[in-house]
Amino acid sequence: MLPGRGQDGRAARVARILGTRTAWSPVGDGEFFCPGCGGDRNYQRLTGHRRFTLLGVPVLPRGETAPVVECAACRRHFGTDVLDHPTTTRFSAMLRDAVHTVALAVLAAGGTCARPALEAAAVTVRAAGFDDCTEEQLNALVEALAADTGRVFSEPCGAGLAIELHEALDPLAPHLAPAGRESILLQGARIALADGPYTPAERDVLATVGAALTICAEDVTRLLAAAARTPS
């Protein structure tokens, strides 16, 4: 007999006689981004109760397990923190709304009379997913925003506009790679530069965008300077 074979055999026999089993109970469901499948899938949220087993029969409770999320497609289990990540559909909507909000903020800071800025903003917003966006629609939205809030064009980023930017960008930032966060800031910079150099109000808005995207102030300054040196 090989060394250790007897011990291994006894351990295997004990494992067949005594063990633990987890009984799962569904407590909710929905849609999530499955890390295993790499796409949006349905899920069940499960709670588990462990029991000692004797010859495969549950005999004694051993306590509860942490809740898990089970993918309906691949059946893999994940921690519930996986639900903090947006689905692909939700992420696309968050990104589209963020770009739209940044475009409106930059236009409001620079004024809406400049046709090049409106055209650049409309192209950017359409590329983000608002396929039917026009310069006229953006102009009307910024004018309505000014009328509703009493905001004066070309003034620094006020509290109300800063709150709107943070509401659109704060939930998105943790799910973007650094290059993605910089891309949103640079899209706003190109809109501001479409009709000439940055105004102080435009710089203020773009600094707020950078802060909401968790880009440090030094990197914001560097990125805005690089955008200003790049021919449009």
TrEMBL record:
> So which domain of life are we looking at?
Bacteria
Which Pfam families would you find in this protein's record?
Answer: TerB
Q: Which organism is it from?
A: Streptomyces shaanxiensis
| Protein name per the record | TerB family tellurite resistance protein
Q: Domain named Co-chaperone DjlA N-terminal: which ranges?
A: 127-223
Q: Which residues form a coiled coil?
A: none
